[in-house]
Design a protein that fits this description.
Mean pLDDT is 82; it is low at 1-21 and 28-56. The radius of gyration is 22 Å and the shape is globular. The protein has helices spanning 7-18, 28-34, 67-73, 90-105, 121-126, 153-167, 172-179, 190-200, 204-217, 222-239, 244-250, 255-267, 271-284, 287-301, 309-322, and strands spanning 59-61, 79-85, 110-116, 134-139, 142-148. By secondary structure, the protein is an alpha/beta fold.
C-alpha cells in the first residue's frame, strides 16, 4: 500500500483501493455483540440522530466494539478521520499529534478516531492496511479518501480543507462548527508553504533548498526530512532516461542505467522490482560502485514507512548481499 510520500499519488492510489471495496457494516454485528454498556448519547435531547462529540472530544479511542457508533454512525453527522496506528510505529508518533491538534482546532467539524491495530486487528484488516500509519476519511458511513505515511503538516491541512469543502453541504457537523465560530486554525508554516509551492511548480531545486533551510535550523524535523527525500526522488525520476530500464537489462554493468531504472520502477510502484534490481547490483559490484548503489537504495527506503514489508525484506536482502 505504501508508496513514495507524494500526497497526491498516495491518496489517489489508496483511495482507489478502498473505493467500493470496504463495507464498514462488516463490523456491526461484532460490535453489537461485544457492546455491553449503554449506547453513546445520540444527538440533541429527544433526537435520534448520530452521536456527536462532547466538548473537547476531538480525539476518540476506538475499538472494534465501539467502531459502529463512534465511526460509522458519527460519520453521518461529521467527518471522521480514522488513524490506524501502533505504539511501536515511529511515523505514527510524528503524524498522530498533528492530526489531533488540527482536529481540536476545527471546533467539531471533524474528529480523529484512533485505532490501535495491535489491539484491533480486524479493523486494520477491514481497510486492507498493509502499513501504518494509514489514515482514512469516513463520511456518510463510507471511506471517501485516504493516505498512508507521515505527511508534512501543510499537506495534511490541505487534505483536510479539501475534504471539508467537498462535504460541507452533506455533513451538518461541518456547518454547525463553522457557524459556531470554532477555533481559528493556526497559520501554515511559511517555510513549508514556500517549499511546497516550489515543488508544485516543478522547481525541485528551490524546494530542496527550502527544506534544507528548515533542517539547518531544526535538524530533527522529521516532516522536513521526509519531504526532502521525496523532492530528491521526484527530481531524479523525472530526469531519468526513459529507456533506462531497457538499457539496464541489456547491460547489467551500466551502473547509471541501473540507478535510473530503479527510480523509474519505484515511481511506477514496481517497488519490489526496483529494490531487487539494486540489491542484485550490489552483489555484482565492489568498492565505490557498491557503496554508491547501497546509498541510493537506502535513500529509496526513506520514501516508505519503515514497517513496510517490502522495505524490511529489502533491508534483510541488502544485509545479506553486503556481508
Amino acid at each position: 500500500m505504501t508508496q513514495p510520500r507524494g500526497s497526491a499519488a498516495k491518496s489517489a492510489a489508496l483511495s482507489a483501493a478502498l473505493s467500493g471495496a470496504v463495507d464498514l457494516s462488516a463490523l456491526k454485528a461484532r460490535a453489537e455483540a461485544a457492546q455491553r454498556q449503554p449506547a453513546p448519547p445520540t444527538g440533541p435531547a429527544g433526537g435520534d440522530g448520530p452521536p456527536r462529540p462532547a466538548a473537547g472530544g476531538a480525539v476518540i479511542d476506538v475499538t472494534e466494539a465501539t467502531f459502529q457508533a463512534e465511526v460509522v454512525e458519527r460519520s453521518l453527522h461529521q467527518l471522521v478521520v480514522v488513524d490506524l496506528w501502533a505504539e511501536w510505529c515511529g511515523p505514527c508518533k510524528q503524524l498522530s499529534p498533528v492530526l489531533e491538534r488540527l482536529a481540536a482546532e476545527s471546533g467539531g467539524a471533524w474528529v480523529v478516531a484512533k485505532v490501535d491495530v495491535d489491539a484491533n486487528p480486524r479493523i486494520a484488516q477491514l481497510f486492507g492496511a498493509q502499513s501504518i500509519p494509514t489514515i482514512v476519511a469516513i463520511a456518510g458511513g463510507q471511506p471517501v479518501d485516504a493516505f498512508s505515511g507521515a505527511l508534512p503538516e501543510p499537506e495534511i491541512r490541505k487534505w483536510i480543507s479539501a475534504l471539508l469543502d467537498a462535504l460541507r453541504d452533506k455533513l451538518p457537523g461541518i456547518r454547525d462548527a463553522e457557524a459556531a465560530g470554532g477555533p481559528v486554525e493556526e497559520p501554515e508554516d511559511p517555510r513549508f508553504t514556500e517549499a511546497e509551492e516550489a515543488f508544485e511548480r516543478g522547481d525541485f531545486a528551490a524546494a530542496q533548498a527550502a527544506y534544507e533551510r528548515i533542517l539547518d535550523v531544526e535538524p530533527a524535523n522529521e516532516l522536513a526530512k521526509n519531504a526532502l527525500a521525496q523532492v530528491k526522488f521526484t527530481a531524479r525520476a523525472e530526469n531519468a532516461d526513459p529507456d533506462a530500464i531497457a538499457k539496464a537489462d541489456a547491460d547489467p554493468a551500466d551502473l547509471a542505467a541501473q540507478l535510473d531504472a530503479a527510480d523509474l520502477q519505484i515511481a511506477a510502484n514496481e517497488v519490489e522490482a526496483g529494490f531487487k534490481r539494486l540489491i542484485d547490483t550490489v552483489r555484482r559490484t565492489a568498492g565505490e560502485d557498491r557503496n554508491k548503489v547501497r546509498e541510493h537504495l537506502v535513500a529509496l527506503f526513506d520514501l516508505f514507512d519503515p514497517a513496510d514489508d517490502r522495505v524490511m525484506k529489502a533491508r534483510r536482502d541488502l544485509a545479506s548481499a553486503l556481508f
